[in-house]
Amino acid sequence: MTDLLAVRDLSVFYGARAQAVERVSFTVAPRAVVALLGANGAGKSSIMKALAGLIPARGEILFEGAPVGALTTRQRVARGIVYVPEGRAIVGSLTVRENLVLGGYQATAVQRRERMAMVLDLFPEIAPRVDGAAWKLSGGEQQMLAIGRGLMAGPKLLLLDEPSLGLAPLLVRRVFDRLAGIRRDGELAIVLVEQNLQMTMRLADGVHFLRSGRLVGHRHRDDLQTRAARQEVIDAYLGAAGQHAA
Ligand SMILES: Nc1ncnc2c1ncn2[C@@H]1O[C@H](COP(=O)(O)OP(=O)(O)OP(=O)(O)O)[C@@H](O)[C@H]1O
Ligand SMILES: [Mg+2]
Fold first, then answer.
1. Angle subtended at Cα 64 by Cα 58 and Cα 65, rounded to the nearest 5 degrees
2. Which of 18, 27, 157, 237 could form a disulfide linkage to 3, CB 3.0–4.6 angstroms apart?
3. Is-contact 152 115, C-beta < 8 A?
4. What residue's CA is closest to ligand 1, atom 29?
5. Low-confidence ranges of the chain (pLDDT < 70)
6. Distance 174 CA to ligand 2 centre (A)
7. Is pTM beyond 0.90 here?
8. CB–CB of 82/153 below 8 Å?
């Protein structure tokens, strides 16, 4: 089976000297959810932005077997690689509907209508607010909108950067439950960036641990089912940053 995504020796530099990501390699199988876990500054967002084509990177990125590293962000979106940035980045002054339409800017009118219905069905919290200003949504609802906007592009691979950031535990659970639903129903694969191991384990098939720009370990979800196993990887790879193991 061909991997949906194969990343080989990906490196990201900010300026001549600052290397944020160092020769990172991993693969994502079709429909898989692969998580990247690491402390603040470990290089998680840099990997995601490099995959999305938002920042330059060295190394090889193969998507559906074809190199995409030289493509623009827009071209990668057209192929099905869609980034949902951390901090939501919705346009507050636009309505919820307008934000969603923005996400589907490369789609046909028919696709946009279908996907809009799918997103509002998935996140019924925002459905009644669709013609209201996006800034009026709660933090959790804004996160739903941000994910919904990503889905409007019809992604094959969703790059989700800290969907739980700044959300109350109850809302985090809700967002992750919806993501688990999307995953069950569709063809979608996800690269998930998180700091919270417990939440990550609700969704991910496998977890890569990132420290100072390098992948330092990997665990399959089956190897992280017990509290002791989770504590072991936290001690080994994450230190104080990933202390929420329970
Ligand atoms: N635009 C930039 N210019 C210079 N350095 C940057 C830039 N963006 C990130 N860095 C640096 O690159 C490293 C990795 O940052 P990155 O944002 O990828 O980390 P992260 O794992 O996503 O962290 P967080 O959990 O805080 O979001 C950090 O040392 C950061 O300071
Ligand atoms: Mg980040």
1. 65
2. 27
3. yes
4. 41
5. 1, 240-246
6. 21
7. yes
8. yes
